[in-house]
Write a structure and sequence with these properties.
This protein is of the alpha/beta class. The chain contains three helices and ten strands. Helix 1 packs across helix 2. Bound molecules: guanosine-5'-monophosphate.
Amino acid sequence: MPTIHQKNFETFIDSVAIAQKVNELGTVIAKDYKGKDLLCIAILNGSYMFAADLSRAINLPLELTFIKYNSYRSMESSGVVEKFIGLTSEAKGRHVLLIEDIIDTGLTMTEILNDIQQLQPASVEVVTLLLKPSALQEDLDIKYIGFEIENRFVVGYGLDFDGYGRNLKDICVLQQ
Ligand code: 5GP
């Protein structure tokens, strides 16, 4: 049971269930994008591990790049989305798949979608490993969802608590 910054976490989704879900998502995405020019854009920092595994589960030629936004401060959403690193790859006319670790309020993803749409891609879809439906404040159309979870704070598999916990193999939840 990991302790991070004096808080206790317990396993919520274990590494086996994560791997199975990532492979399922990769299989569906590969089928949907067969023959298309696929540009995967992963949102740093949290999605680095998911992007690494998901991209290997998509058995297609694809480009993978990263952007960095951040709206989270410690354990709750700040409600303010800041852009840190922009996109360097050409998105115009290409099929863009945004890779996100978790969608909470949806503010970050709404902002990113607005920015990406302006680049005139052929299509834009979102894959998120985790979604907190009860926290959503935006009307988002998310095509690929790994797990819908309750509105609790999770760490592990790339997700952090003030920088720590990203390297946990399982997704863990704050103990109640
Ligand atoms: P949103 O803009 O949807 O509220 O928040 C999206 C971002 O907040 C995610 O990319 C992630 O970085 C962070 N986030 C949301 N919920 C959690 C959570 O339960 N745990 C962690 N570690 N980060 C979260």
